[in-house]
Design goal:
signal; mainly beta; Lipoprotein; five-stranded mixed β-sheet; 141 residues
Length: 141
């Protein structure tokens, strides 16, 4: 019975990944790639809240992307004997040359308490860097 439940669980995870919509060739597609065991979510484009936090799909031209990045600060970065601290950060990224049909990759990570995110094109060139707009402690929310 356990084996069946495990297989059912794995099948459900595969189904979730398969539900990603097909990219619209008239828009730019931005994949989200968090760094390590962290969470990166799409929040809004040009101030309009998104329904699906798993990706950005934007019309060509200049766009402002808003995202949420969650990560843990290692206790060694806080002080001797400290435990890890969960951080929940808002980031924005502005880029003025999104192209229809192009695929981009948004990669996020953290240095100590500070989050970072970079937008890459299909050739792995850095096109833009996000700005931190505020962070907090997940446990306090």
């Amino acid at each position: 019975m356990r084996g069946f439940l495990f297989l059912l669980f794995l099948a459900s995870l595969t189904g979730c990944a398969a539900m990603m919509p097909k990219p619209d060739p008239e828009q730019a597609w931005i994949d989200l790639n968090p760094n390590g065991e962290t969470e990166l979510q799409a929040v809004a484009v040009d101030g309009r809240t998104l329904e699906d936090p798993r990706y950005f799909q934007v019309t060509p031209g200049s766009r402002k992307l808003e995202m949420r990045y969650r990560f843990d600060v290692d206790g060694a970065n806080i002080g001797p004997g400290s435990s890890a601290l969960a951080r929940d950060c808002k980031l924005t990224l502005e880029y003025d040359r999104f192209t229809a049909g192009a695929r981009y990759r948004l990669v996020a990570g953290g240095y100590g308490f500070r989050p970072w995110a970079k937008l890459y094109d299909q050739h792995q060139y850095v096109l833009a860097r996000a700005e931190e707009k505020g962070c907090g402690d997940l446990a306090g929310r």
